[in-house]
């Protein structure tokens, strides 16, 4: 009996050790951005395309106050409610004490400076495709923003979703920094893919998810239930969105649809972001959406 119990204990310890290794954070190689100087002016455009302020400004902030990334907005989901953290340059409550490398690991790998996994409510699975130069420029720009000493609020999650280490298994299942549209040809389509799949992270809202919250890439951008439980988010594939490319580009600039309706909800801020980008960027997004297959299956 003692041998049996001893064997079970050893097997349990071995399983726990294997699980601990499997769920360990995966960081970028050390020195990935060494010697690269960021350009804050270029970083401002990356910041806008990535929609950083849209999620991280304080609730109800307007105008220039939206550049104070104090956090606090609430995002409901099937797993609980996530609260956007303070990512202003404040060294105590924000990310002002982080290094560029720590920032890169958070944005592109979902790993906090202390090694904890970040929840994928933060779209690092999309930002993982970000160009290294854009990452460095974004970091440079964020250092120029106003600081806020507003403390970040904890997420409101129940068991087992409040166990961050389990996100290591989630990443093994769903973290993939490859392109969904892997055969993009031509400069415009490549740029559109970069904006849609990486910076603007459109799939985070417009692609359905499975029971564990992973994106169903076989139904890429075909629409999804609204995480807050109210209504649905429309599909963007040609079988769901019949607009001409010029209509899509115009909508991203003005918020007006071909049916003379206007943008609403969270898309208001998305359109405001895209309206600040170059016309070529809006045209590239439109080209990408028109190139999608019906049903969203890329293979």
UniProtKB/TrEMBL annotation:
Transmembrane segments: none annotated. It comes from the Bacteria. Signal peptide: none annotated. InterPro entries: Cyt_c-like_dom, Cyt_c-like_dom_sf, Cytochrome_c-type_DH. The keyword Iron applies. Residues 38-146, 181-293 form the Cytochrome c domain. Pfam families: Cytochrom_C (PF00034). GO terms for molecular function: electron transfer activity; heme binding; metal ion binding. Keywords: Heme, Iron, Metal-binding. The keyword Cytoplasm does not apply. PANTHER family: ALCOHOL DEHYDROGENASE CYTOCHROME C SUBUNIT (PTHR35008:SF8), BLL4482 PROTEIN-RELATED (PTHR35008). This is Cytochrome c, mono-and diheme variants family.
């Amino acid at each position: 009996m003692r041998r049996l119990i001893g064997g079970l204990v050893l097997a349990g310890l071995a399983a726990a050790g294997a699980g601990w290794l499997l769920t360990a954070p995966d960081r970028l190689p050390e020195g990935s951005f060494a010697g690269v100087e960021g350009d804050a002016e270029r970083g401002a455009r990356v910041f806008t395309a990535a929609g950083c302020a849209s999620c991280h400004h304080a609730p109800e902030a307007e105008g220039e106050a939206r550049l104070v990334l104090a956090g606090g907005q609430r995002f409901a989901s099937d797993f609980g409610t996530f609260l956007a953290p303070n990512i202003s340059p404040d060294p105590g409550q924000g990310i002002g004490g982080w290094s560029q490398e720590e920032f890169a690991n958070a944005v592109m790998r979902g790993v906090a400076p202390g090694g904890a996994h970040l929840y994928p409510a933060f779209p690092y699975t999309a930002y993982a495709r970000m160009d290294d130069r854009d990452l460095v420029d974004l970091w440079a720009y964020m250092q120029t923003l106003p600081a806020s000493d507003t403390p970040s609020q904890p997420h409101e999650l129940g068991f087992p979703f409040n166990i961050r280490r389990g996100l290591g298994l989630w990443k093994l299942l769903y973290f993939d920094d490859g392109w969904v549209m892997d055969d993009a040809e031509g400069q415009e389509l490549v740029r559109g893919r970069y904006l849609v799949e990486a910076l603007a992270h459109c799939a985070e809202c417009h692609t359905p998810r499975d029971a564990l919250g992973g994106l169903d890439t076989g139904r890429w951008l075909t629409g999804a239930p609204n995480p807050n439980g109210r209504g649905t988010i429309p599909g963007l594939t040609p079988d769901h969105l019949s607009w001409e490319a010029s209509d899509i580009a115009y909508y991203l600039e003005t918020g007006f649809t071909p049916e003379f309706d206007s943008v609403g909800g969270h898309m208001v801020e998305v359109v405001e972001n895209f309206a600040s980008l170059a016309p070529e960027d809006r045209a590239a997004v439109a080209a990408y959406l028109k190139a999608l297959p019906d049903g969203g299956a890329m293979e």
